[in-house]
Each structure stands twice: as structure tokens, then as C-alpha cells.
Amino acid sequence: MATAAHSVLPELDAGAFARWRSGGGRVVDLLGEARELGPVAGFRLGDRQVVLVTGASQVQQVLAKSPDTYVKRGHRLKPLLGEGLLCAAGEQWRRQRKLLQSQFTGRGIKVYEPQIRAAVAAVAERWRAAAAAGEVREIDADLRYFSLDVIWRSLTAHPLDPETHRRLVSAGDGFAAIPAFAPATGDTAIDFRETNEHVDRVAERAIALAGETDEQPGVVRVLLQAAAELPEYTERLVRDELMTVVVAGYETTATALSWLFLLLDAHPEQRDLALAAGPAGSDGRSAAIRALIDETLRLYPVAWLMPRYAAAPDTLDGIPIEAGTTVLLSPYLTHRDPELWPDPEEFRPQRFLDAERRPAPGAYLPFGLGPRACLGAQFAVREMAMLLEEVLPAFRAEVREAPAGAGYGLTVHPDGPVRAVLHATGE
């Protein structure tokens, strides 16, 4: 019986890879070259085959339809987050996700809204004072503080204190040192002892503070109850899960909000359009603010590179994928594919308000897809929306100093501070 013919994997030639590496190029530039070869393309790192998947249907197949074929094999954050949910795999991951899932549903998030509102009010107060004084502020630092404050209040029912903030910022420097894809850059192992010391002390502080209140916040309560009843929830695993919530929660929000204010400075009409969509609290304004968030995450998805490992043979777009192949997915590149997104480089939030032109399955994945999609996605979007609903009508941020471009580490982030003057508009 005849068998179907297979397509050949389009690959960057060895010369292109060598030129990229000798020129000190960024990983995103190498992957951008590979994407030009098609929705499934590749290159070689020594004897290792690397396949980049950017087409919508192929992304859907890898992440949503075949998650047991394309699996996580370790994680770049494992030295810091141990066996936390982000780094766990297999049955262990399934048990851990099931335990925490109720905290991040729409209903579960409502429990945390008073804590989010308190963090929003603290930002608004600082910005009112800065606007009155004509002060130039690093608003990216304010937004990082806000996102950390939200997570800390949600975990402990206490506002973020200076010592915890200092430790978390220091730990964040350790996370920032991790490369996006070390095999391509040749980066060596990093000494995380100091970072882990900060992480350990923060976890201890969170548990101690949560124990001081009878109304213990949800995530901590769930983890401590699991530690009392389930032998696998050791003190170390509780620490890993707490820090996974902190790291995954704050970086997503802070980075996306920094990009959003940069984009609004470049496109001030989009702020005006969002505010004109309806009065405060209306469905129209809420939808317009959500569109601002969605479009920002399209251009700058925080998890811009997602490595997977082919645990079994498969076929993608007619191309055989051998077991053991490294498979890379890049929401950043998929979101900028002109075949999926008209005028992909333009900041156009209105594309998310057109119900008749929804993105194809696999074309939009700022939080991943399938069973391993980010558990905290709804939480992140909700806290961003609550902040914007408060500060967008009250302030206009005039950027005085913008970063030269983007940095591509574990996240795609503004590569430098965002300094701005805040003008009180007082809707």
C-alpha cells in the first residue's frame, strides 16, 4: 500500500546560523529568519534538531491538541522555583494545578478584588502627588510595585512592605539573568544562591503574615491545608508554589502595563477612543479597556518563547517531527504574522472589538494554549483592567524618556526605564 509523501523541513543553512552567532545577534532575530521559511521551520544546534512552529493551526496542534506529545522537559526557572506549578510536569503537574485551579476562576478572583482595589488606590495616590508636583517618575517601577503589591496583598492580606519589596526586586534581577533559549546563545549556568536566599525569606514572610489573620487568603490557605493533609506537599513545595504565584503573577502584569503606557504615549488617540466608548463602569468602556490590554499583549506577549520537547514522533504540516526534537513556539512571532494579523506592527485595539473577525485558533496565545495555558491569565487581565479603569481617565502619562527597544530574556520587556510626567485630567 502506498504511503503519503512527507514534506521536507525548511531549514536555515549552516552559514546563516554561523553568521548570526558570530555577529552576536539576538535569539529573536534568528527565529525571525527561520519564520520566513514557513509556519514550520528549523535549524540545527550541533546534533540537535530545533523546529520553530509559528503557524496558527500548527501551534494549535502542538499546545492544545497534542500536549502529551509536546511536553515541557525541565524549565529555565527550575533552579529558582523548584517543583512549583510552572516547572512541574506529568501527573505531578496535574495534581498541583487541580489544587490551585479554583483560586483563579472568575468566581475565585472576586475574592481578591478588595486587595486589588487597595493596590490601585495606592498607585493613584502616588500619581496624584507626582502630577501636582510635576515630578518625572519611572512609571515602569511604579507598575512593578503595583503588581507586586497586588500579589502580596492577595497572599497575605497585608500591603507590600519595603523589606519584602527589596528582596523581590533583588530576586527579579536573578530571574532577568536567565536567557530565553540558552542552547542557542551558549550561556553557562548561573549562580542562583543569592537569589534563592531572597526567595526563601519572602516565602517564609508570606506564610508568617498569612497566619496572623483568621481570614487567611485563599492560595496560602489551600497550600497550608495541603501540607497538613498530603505528604507530597512538603515545606519546600509550599515555598515553590508560593514563589511561582509571585513570579508568574507580577512579571506578566508589570511588563504588559509598561508597554501599554508606551503605546498610548505614541498613540494618544487610543486613550481618547477608550474613554469615549462609554461612561465609567459601562460595558462599552470595559470592552475598550480590555481591547487595549489584548492588543498590547498581541504585540508584546510576556511569554514570548515557549520551548517544548517531542516525546514521541509526530507530523506537523506534513513534516515529520522525530522524537527528541526541540520544538519552539513564539507567540511574539505568531502575533506578528501578516497572514494572521493585518498590519501586524500597528497598535490597533479595535481589531479586538470586531466580533466578526476573531483570530483563528492558535493565532493568539499571550498566555499559552491548551492544558498548560497560564493558570493566572484571568487574574492578570482583571488586575490590569481595574488599574486602567481608575488611572486612565484620571491621568495622561507623557513619556519623557523611553527605552531604545525591547529586551528578549525570559520575557519581552522594555529595555530600560520608562520616565514620564503625569498630567491629572480628572474626568
TrEMBL record:
Keywords: Heme, Iron, Metal-binding, Monooxygenase, Oxidoreductase. Coiled coil: none annotated. Pfam families: p450 (PF00067). GO terms for molecular function: heme binding; iron ion binding; monooxygenase activity; oxidoreductase activity, acting on paired donors, with incorporation or reduction of molecular oxygen. Heme binds at C374. Its cofactor is heme. InterPro entries: Cyt_P450 (IPR001128), Cyt_P450_CS (IPR017972), Cyt_P450_E_grp-I (IPR002401), Cyt_P450_sf (IPR036396), Cytochrome_P450_monoxygenase (IPR050121). The keyword Lyase does not apply. The keyword Metal-binding applies. Belongs to the cytochrome P450 family. This is Cytochrome P450.
